[in-house]
Amino acid sequence: MRFTQFHFHPDIQSGICDAGYTSPTPIQQKAIPTILDGKDILGLAQTGTGKTVAFVLPILQHLLKKPSTPSASSPSALIMAPTRELAEQIHESIKMMAVHTPVKSAVVYGGIGKPLQIKALKRGVDIVVACPGRLLDLMNDKALTLKGVDILVLDEADQMLDMGFLPDIKRIIRALPKKRQSLVFSATMPKMIGNLAQEILNHPIQIQVNHTQPAPRITHGRFNVQPEKRTALLKTLFSKNGMASTIVFTRTKHKAKSLAVLLKKSGFNAVSLQGNLSQSQRRRAMDGFRSGSFKILVATDIAARGIDVSGVSHVINYDLPDTVETYIHRTGRTGRANQSGQAYTFASVEDSKAIALIEKALGRKMTEESLLPA
């Protein structure tokens, strides 16, 4: 199957060709026709499966068919995301796909001043990509209204709920027109997502693309190590294994920060990505990791959700994730685009039940690794 089969507007097709896209991913194959038909969607798919393009292209098609000009007060499409990084990524994808069209978009999130964002909105936009908190601030400031929104997208909805955005999301939804198309995408399907979907979706089509299936080209290894010895083991791994580009996952912001500082003091090129950083610090961390200036990114699940970085060779679970789905989501950041990847998990005897559940999802045992700390 090829993108030409969707019969997008020629200006959209030109953007697709410029981006080098030819064949749609499974989530795109399933979601695009349904969205083009105007139906609501509950989509379950991991980060990196192409779901951003799956909703951006139909939104552009809808806007090009709509006989209107960008409004200085209300966008036609609203896309909400949990983190600033993901909001920026979605915005960049829109700009890339819409490069040959008159569609205008803006991105709004906290951590930076509002004046530039308000200025962008006043110029008139078709699409707003937003984090919920800043969106509400701008609504309270009368910088925009949502009365003209035809399409709503909640991306990484499970993470937005984990971050406590549910009250904000409900306030925003109350400000939207009742007649609209709504699309909810999530990597996992906790009960709260099901409840939220029932509230905001109208007879949705559920699309599920291997959201709990491990990527096929990743090898999974386990180190049996007590918590107090994990940092020493980590340093030994980096010293001996020549890891090219590694994401280390920790459970808390404090641990991510302190571990990155410790690794840096030990001579390793490491940086943290966690919620206490300013926007400029987060951008520096991500840009440095993407470019290779930083070889190690120490991150929490929330900070790293939605970050799409190609060429990650290793993922290390310094702290065991809370759920099997989170494990699949973490380790899926390596082994992308038909490349191979390696995932290591640090675990102790107390983690045996959690490891058994992960191995059941993987369909195989993790390789037991042995590397004594220096």
Annotation, overall tally of beta strands:
14
Helix percentage range: 40-55%
Major beta sheet, specifics?
7 strands, parallel
- Beta-strand proportion: 15-25%
Low-confidence stretches: none
Please write the string of helix (H) and strand (E) elements: HHEHEHEHEHEHHEHEEHEHEHEHEHEHE
Q: Superfamily at the CATH H level of the largest domain?
A: P-loop containing nucleotide triphosphate hydrolases
Shape: globular
Number of domains: 2
| CATH hierarchy class name of the largest domain | Alpha Beta
Q: Provide the structure class.
A: alpha/beta
> Quaternary status of these chains?
single chain
CATH architecture of the largest domain: 3-Layer(aba) Sandwich
What is the typical, i.e. mean, pLDDT? 88
Radius of gyration: 21 Å
Alpha plus pi helix count: 15
Strand order of the largest sheet: 3-4-2-5-6-1-7
Distance between the termini: 52 Å
